[in-house]
């Protein structure tokens, strides 16, 4: 009897934001014929470990290890030495584990790709979930070439890659599961409820959104999910919201394990990012529940939201333009756009479509590589 193929996912965080939730979908897509294990880093202290808990609930083995995850804190001589030591340890760990494939789920763990090759792992996969900067192309481009198979989550991400990497990369758009229930927008009354759900990174646009909220005269109720990232520049959303003319119109919820209930309670979801989003998972989660999306017109969101159809776009960082969108919405226009958003989800972003495309991209390359080494 042939043993199941063993696949180890290397992931860069233990939270439940976009890339973390997509890891859960990849684990599911791998199927029962694949022996899956997830390795997570132990270099950051999280107030909670929801991804780890979700994996445990799915009976997926998890190990917390000293993985060579590229973070800003390591961009110095001492940090580089730490990454080198972690890489050497990872060689031994992989040789002991003897996986058939290693899957680097984000660009932050791509240092593990050449390490896996050194450990004689038969197949190495890299998944790009970030828009690369010029320095990224210089620093991460080399380890990315060690991967046998390469995937990206959007055309925007692929366009940011070095040509030598981009030419080998398959775009597999994210997908999201069918909601357990549908809460219709029809029949509602009163002020519109808006939702923003993301980490409070500086580039996520919370300051732009809250400035627009003031300019638009607080046109309803704004619910804010999320929290400051464990590393990197962030915004004190609570302080900015408190300084608004009508701070009582904004509800700060903080981090939640599952945002679906808040999306269902909202009328409109906002993605106000000042910098291009690599994809925008919350947008398709909103569409799945029949909620329209207001989004900045950049990055992967341009491939998801159609202006005036299933949502509305505004120039990134333009608080006045966003205020104009907020002020223009009526309940009728929101219901109409929400219905179209649901149709967009059904046509393009179901989890079944994702799983099929993901398996084709990952396992076809894996089997070709396996056949060449048999």
CATH architecture of the largest domain: 3-Layer(aba) Sandwich
Extract low-pLDDT stretches: none
Please give the largest β-sheet. 7 strands, parallel
Order of helices and strands: EHEHEHEHEHHEHHEEHEHEHEHEEHHH
The H-level CATH homologous superfamily of the largest domain, spelled out, is Glycogen Phosphorylase B
Report the CATH C-level class of the largest domain: Alpha Beta
Mean of residue pLDDT values: 94
Count up the domains.
2
**Strand elements, count:** 13
Strand order of the largest sheet: 3-2-1-4-5-6-7
Strand portion, in percent? 15-25%
Q: Categorize the overall geometry.
A: globular
Q: Give the proportion of residues in helices.
A: 25-40%
* Distance separating the two termini: 17 Å
What structural class should be given to the helix and strand makeup?
alpha/beta
Radius of gyration: 21 Å
CATH T-level fold name of the largest domain: Rossmann fold
Number of helices: 15
Walkthrough of the structure:
The protein is an alpha/beta fold and 374 residues long. It has two domains: 5-175 and 350-373, 3-Layer(aba) Sandwich (Rossmann fold); 193-348, 3-Layer(aba) Sandwich (Rossmann fold), CATH 3.40.50.2000. Helix content is 40%, strand content 17%. The protein has helices at 18-30, 50-57, 77-97, 112-118, 134-139, 141-144, 155-159, 163-166, 206-215, 237-242, 260-265, 281-288, 319-328, 331-348, 351-373; strands at residues 5-10, 34-41, 62-65, 101-104, 123-128, 149-152, 169-171, 193-197, 221-225, 250-254, 268-271, 293-296, 311-314. α3 crosses α4 (112-118), α9 packs across α13 (319-328) and α12 crosses α14 (331-348). The radius of gyration is 21 Å and the shape is globular. The mean pLDDT is 94.
